[in-house]
Amino acid sequence: MAEFVHVASAAELPPGGVTVITAGGRSIAVFNVEGAFYAIDDSCTHEYAPLSPGTRVGEIVTCPKHGSRFNVRTGGVLSLPAVVPVNIYPVKVEDGQVYVLPEPQRGRGMPHKA
Ligand code: FES
């Protein structure tokens, strides 16, 4: 059974920020979206490019390789060429510290729908 792993202090990951941890054998990108924290696989479901360097507007990150867009809250894929949602991970904040549970959950959301 996986346990929550420490990511950073909330102050170290300000709104608009992203950091990447390795846990459970996976690279997990943790985003701060206007004070809410979300975690996804740091790997596009198209050809596995890291998503953390992608441009971001609110909850939407754009893959830097071919431009698929994903919702970091739901994992949903919003545009081609990717057609599979990205895994998401539970996140909690306790005493100003951000933690992720490295148990992937299938992202939800129909392909290419917001
Ligand atoms: S690797 Fe992300 S869209 Fe192709």
Task: Give a written overview of the molecule.
The protein is mainly beta. It has a single domain (5-100), classed as Rieske [2Fe-2S] iron-sulphur domain (Rieske Iron-sulfur Protein). The protein is built from no helices and ten strands. It has strands at residues 5-9, 18-23, 26-33, 36-41, 56-57, 60-62, 69-71, 88-89, 91-94, 97-100. The strands form three sheets. Strands 2-3-4-8 form a four-stranded antiparallel beta sheet, with no helix packed on it. A three-stranded antiparallel beta sheet has the order 1-10-9, with no helix packed on it. Strand 5 and strand 6 form a beta hairpin. The chain is globular and about 40 Å long. The protein starts with a strand and ends in a 14-residue tail after the last strand. The structure holds FE2/S2 (inorganic) cluster.
What are the salient characteristics of this protein?
114 residues; Rieske Iron-sulfur Protein; three-stranded antiparallel sheet; four-stranded antiparallel sheet; binds FE2/S2 (inorganic) cluster; mainly beta
